[in-house]
């Protein structure tokens, strides 16, 4: 059964300004989990790194919308982790604390899609319980 859907779109240039500025490192620490930060570091070009960070930010916003709570005390940005599977498909997990706070059963699934253009990133999430 579908619990919720969420979608988010943002301008990549917004994230580029943040990441390249003085607050870039703290922004990345605030938004990305340790594993996501490790993946960010091996992205290669600065363009690819910015797309990655923007995609993760949009995806986390879409997941929070699909869960019906937004980013709040029950679900922070670092409570959501998005890592690729062996084929590159984004796999999404939330912390056990957040799962319990949100009243989700242990078998829930988050389906996620992230797409980029030169200027925008869009993410779409579906939570299935």
TrEMBL record:
The keyword Protein biosynthesis does not apply. Residues 4-124 form the 4'-phosphopantetheinyl transferase domain. Pfam families: ACPS. Mg(2+) binds at residues 8, 61. It is an enzyme of class 2 (transferase). InterPro entries: 4-PPantetheinyl_Trfase_dom, 4-PPantetheinyl_Trfase_dom_sf, ACPS, Ppantetheine-prot_Trfase_dom. GO terms for molecular function: holo-[acyl-carrier-protein] synthase activity. Keywords: Cytoplasm, Fatty acid biosynthesis, Fatty acid metabolism, Lipid biosynthesis, Lipid metabolism, Magnesium, Metal-binding, Transferase. Its EC number is 2.7.8.7. It is found in: Cytoplasm. Its cofactor is Mg(2+). Coiled coil: none annotated. It catalyses: apo-[ACP] + CoA = holo-[ACP] + adenosine 3',5'-bisphosphate + H(+). NCBIfam families: acpS, pantethn_trn. Transfers the 4'-phosphopantetheine moiety from coenzyme A to a Ser of acyl-carrier-protein. Belongs to the P-Pant transferase superfamily. AcpS family. This is Holo-[acyl-carrier-protein] synthase.
């Amino acid at each position: 059964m579908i619990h919720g859907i969420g979608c988010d779109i943002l301008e990549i240039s917004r994230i580029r300004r943040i990441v390249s500025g003085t607050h870039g490192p703290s922004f990345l620490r605030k938004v990305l989990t340790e594993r996501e930060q490790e993946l960010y570091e091996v992205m290669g070009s600065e363009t690819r790194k910015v797309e990655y960070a923007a995609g993760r930010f949009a995806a986390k916003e879409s997941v929070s919308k699909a869960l019906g709570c937004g980013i709040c005390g029950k679900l922070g940005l670092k409570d959501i982790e998005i890592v690729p599977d062996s084929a590159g498909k984004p796999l999404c997990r939330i912390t056990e604390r957040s799962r319990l706070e949100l009243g989700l059963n242990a078998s829930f699934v988050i389906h996620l899609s992230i797409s980029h253009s030169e200027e925008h990133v869009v993410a779409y999430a579906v939570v299935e319980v």
